[in-house]
Design brief:
By secondary structure, the protein is an all-alpha fold. The chain contains 8 helices and 2 strands. The protein has one domain. Strands 1-2 form a two-stranded antiparallel sheet. Strand 1 and strand 2 form a beta hairpin.
């Protein structure tokens, strides 16, 4: 495995100055952040990711929560930020453990580290795939959407539930479920109204 990764990391990426200037008709470079280019240009890759987090981080969160409707790459329809904040708070409230509840922890120490590892692996794999779609002359990552991380959201909430460093005095799951339902219905209603008034870009 190590030899295969090393061989792949040396394939491509060593571009001559005249190759770096080669672009498509739309101005995008014909070269992307391949594995070889990433390994040979780690500082440039790190700068791209650091610029992407503040530029697209909020959009990723909206995508995970379902408050960005439509296809963000083609067109974006965003509902109110208040609904997104309400969903975040409701999900966290439902996941927080109760202070004096004698239940056993949901996750053991090793299982918790395993779940955290799964989350990090999914996030890293998504970033690598998005980098392979991103031309090297782009300033931020191209193609990454928050909904790609939706399958690991329950795992993240499970980690919160198993961590007893922050607890609540009484069970908030019923109120949280009601809040999630209300925010979801409001998101759908606002989404329908935005779709009705949306006009495609000509």
């Amino acid at each position: 495995v190590v030899g295969g990764v090393l061989a792949l990391s040396r394939m491509g990426g060593g571009l001559a100055p005249d190759q770096l200037l080669m672009t498509n008709p739309n101005g995008d470079s014909i070269w992307t952040f391949s594995l070889g280019y990433i390994c040979r240009n780690l500082p440039a890759t790190a700068k791209l990711l650091l610029r992407t987090i503040p530029a697209q981080g909020a959009l990723w969160l909206q995508g995970i929560l379902g408050t960005t409707l439509g296809e963000p790459i083609v067109y974006r329809i965003d509902v109110s930020w208040l609904l997104g904040v309400g969903l975040v708070l409701a999900l966290l409230a439902a996941a927080l453990p109760v202070q004096d509840k004698p239940d056993e922890p949901l996750l053991g120490r090793r299982t918790g580290f395993g779940v955290l590892g799964i989350i990090l692996c999914v996030a890293a794999a998504s970033l690598v795939v998005a980098l392979n779609w991103t031309p090297i002359n782009y300033e931020t990552l191209f193609g990454m959407q928050g909904r790609y991380w939706l399958p690991v959201l329950p795992l993240a909430l499970l980690l919160v539930k198993g961590n007893r460093s922050v607890c609540v005095r009484r069970d908030l799951s019923r109120g949280a479920a009601l809040a999630v339902t209300a925010c979801t219905l409001l998101t759908l209603l606002q989404g329908y109204s935005l779709y009705a008034s949306w006009q495609p870009v000509s």
